[in-house]
Amino acid sequence: MNKIAEYLTKHIKNNVPGLTDLQLIKIKFGLECLFSEASKIIIYLFIFSFFSYTLEFITVLMFFIVTRSFAGGYHEETYWRCFTTTLAIFTAALYIGISFQMAMPVKIILLLVSIILAFIYAPVDHPNKPIISTDRRKRLKYLSVIMIIILGLISFILPDRYSNIAIMSILAEALSLIPGYLKKSDKNLFCREAK
User: Using an 8 Å Cβ cutoff, are 90 and 44 in contact?
Assistant: First the structure.
């Protein structure tokens, strides 16, 4: 992924004059993220389709990613650790969603837990792209809560199987905020002690 992103960034640099080094770094980082995520999604889609869970996987993916785009979450250091962790999370959300019947009160409780976790911990930013602005941090926190509420309401109108999967996906993403927040806090504490 790195080599492809580097090649494309050089091509962009040669064809778009006037880009600063910082802009080129951002472009390269964006391309790396795009290729990394796209390759993982294609592999996941192949795996879940092989087991005839294509629609279930798409449900997990949509509810997880939309929530994560506002709230952030835990990040692994390497591609393959990220791949494995995400696969485990998606599999767990899907398996629990299809294996257990959830009454509406249970869904509401799980949604409330997700909202509370987002309110306490969101946003958990990416280590390579920290959120510096306090206003942006507050805005993302509230948007995370609002998005969980909207997605929760959408999940209530889905057929039971997909509704359960959607709720578990939202909860899985909300739970990922805790280790992400703790990891970031530990890193910040280490940096302060090193100074």
Answer: yes
